[in-house]
Amino acid sequence: MMKAHYDRRIKIIEKAALEADEFLYRYILKAVTEGLAYTHLKTRYDIPCGRDMYYDRYRKFFWLLSKKEIEYE
Question: DSSP secondary structure string, 9-33?
Answer without folding.
Answer: HHHHHHHHHHHH-TTTHHHHHHHHH
